[in-house]
Amino acid sequence: MNLLLIILLLPMLFYIYFLLKIKSGLRKLKQEPGGSVVSKITGVTLVIPFRNEEENLRNLIEDVANLEKDGINFDVIFVNDHSEDDWQEYKNQIRERENWRVIELGAGVTGKKNALTEGIKNSSSEIILVTDADCRIPTKWLKLMVGQFDENTGFVAGAVKYKSNDSIFTKIQALEFGGLILSGAGLIGSGEPVICSAASMAFRRKLFIEVGGYNLNNSLSSGDDEFLMRSIARLGHKVGYLLNKEGIVETNPGDSVGGFVQQRSRWASKGLFYENPILILKLVLIFLFYLSLILSPFTIWFFGWNGSFLVMISIVFKGLTEYFVLLEGEGLLYENVDLSHFLLAELMHVPYIVFTAILGAFGGFVWKGRQLSR
Q1: Could you tell me which residues come within 8 angstroms of residue 218 by beta carbon, excluding any fewer than 6 positions away?
Q2: What pLDDT, on a 0 to 100 scale, did the predictor assign at position 219?
Q3: What pLDDT is attached to residue 264?
Q4: What phi, psi does 371 have (nearest 5°)?
Q5: Looking at residue 363, what is its pLDDT?
Q6: Which position has the higher pLDDT, 266 or 112?
């Protein structure tokens, strides 16, 4: 029985180690210099795939037009993935601007990865910069992202946060999403790139071609960012991270619980297809820790006092460690970590992680009006 308790304890210990590694990586990133624009960069192309983004294109066009270029040779490519809304009014606005253009995906060619690939194929710039059409971009984003590149850098990820409002649901989402962003940043800071966001990323075009673009994971609906980042890292190139308040991109939170679950399930669906078995093992250990908390009543019933103690320290250590990691995002991804919002998020965290992981593993969700199998 003692051996079984020790086995149950292992996922918790790994999870605490995992969070401490993230916190250490974040501290390292915050100590690094912010970077400056590299004069050797010959050009930057911003590629923006979009589908049914009529409500967001006006703000995005304005944000891109206001980007500080500081002498960077810069052009913009919008790629339309068969939008069904009334976005056409923005087509002329885009085409009227110097070095801006719109590309339409052909019949039978769909999806974000194909849209990005088409945009990259139509670019000749050294650096490809990517964001999503529902984002708001700060004026310094371009030069700060480019400033992260040195001669050894192949990929740069950037921080993203949710647009804020007074809704408690949105504030809880902001903490949860902030935790994901901090995890990605901290892991990159500790030298282990795992997750990033396609809402703010940049990479060398020649490396995209060298790794085969999205060919290795084109069948998956998610992961265009992470698979590419790790493919470039495996070639021995440095992965950088922009953790600067003036360079944080804003995106929309989910407007409903159903939409939130659909999105997280889609994100979770790629986990079993990661190319590194050690990484998959780490994710399985984290999932087992969450699952053990779901099954904690059985642990208490079977092990009695010892089981109760194990469950108690698991909950306490999980909460404390996550709270201290989230504090690293104060003033960057959210104003502060409100304790009441944090406790509400903690109550939902474990059930939603387990549920969306299982849902993602079996596929089946709707995104951008399309039914996706995985």
Answers
A1: 113, 114
A2: 60
A3: 84
A4: -85, 120
A5: 66
A6: 112
Other Cβ atoms less than 10 A from the Cβ of 217: the count is 21
The three-state DSSP-derived secondary structure of the chain is CHHHHHHHHHHHHHHHHHHHHHHHHHHHHHHCCCCCCCCCCCCEEEEEEECCCHHHHHHHHHHHHCCCCCCCCEEEEEEECCCCCCHHHHHHHHHCCCCEEEEECCCCCCCHHHHHHHHHHCCCCCEEEECCCCCECCCCHHHHHHCCCCCCEEEEEECEEECCCCCHHHHHHHHHHHHHHHHHHHHHHCCCCCCCCCCCEEEEHHHHHHCCCCHHHCCCCCCCCHHHHHHHHHCCCEEEEECCHHHCEEECCCCCHHHHHHHHHHHHCCHHHCCCHHHHHHHHHHHHHHHHHHCHHHHHHHHCHHHHHHHHHHHHHHHHHHHHHHHHHECCCECCCCHHHHHHHHHHHHHHHHHHHHHHHHCCEEECCEEECC
Q: What are the extents of the domains in the chain?
A: 2-24+273-368, 31-254
Task: Kindly report the CATH number that applies to the domain delimited by 31-254.
Answer: 3.90.550.10
Give the angle subtended at the CA of 136 by the CAs of 131 and 140, to the nearest 5°: 85
- Provide the token pair at 144: 């700060």
Share the mean pLDDT of the chain: 89
Segment 148-184, tens digit of pLDDT: 999 899 999 999 999 888 889 999 999 999 999 999 9
What is d(CA 33, CA 53) in angstroms, rounded to the nearest whole number?
Answer: 36
pTM for this predicted structure: 0.91
Residue type, 355: F
Q: Which residues of 150-167 are buried (b: 16+ CB within 10 A; e: fewer)?
A: eeebbbbbbbbbbeeeee
Q: Which residues contact 287 (CB under 8 A, 6 or more apart)?
A: 353, 354, 357
